[in-house]
Amino acid sequence: MRPLSYWIPPYLFDSTRGLFTPGGPASTMHFSSTLFTALMAALATAHPGHDHAKDLNSRLEFLANNKNDLSHCAEKMRARGLDASNARRRTQLAESLLKKRGLEGEGFPDLDQ
What we know:
57% helix
């Protein structure tokens, strides 16, 4: 049977002091991983005392005062006839696509009525 030193790379084994000696490569790796973990923990807590509730309140206040839709100008669009022209354009497109594929049927109801 071969000795333990045969199976372990020579840079990790010191026959006089044993395996993984202090100051050897294994302890350096352990120190490096500990340092890396400490550094990552420091980065994770980079903004201590940051108030998330304040951010949330400011965002909610912004969204309450600014609309992300067109509801505030829907009457103007309806008065200009954009709704009807858009509906006609989409109906014509759908009918042409159905005709192109040979799926002509009863068509679509007239949306202007």
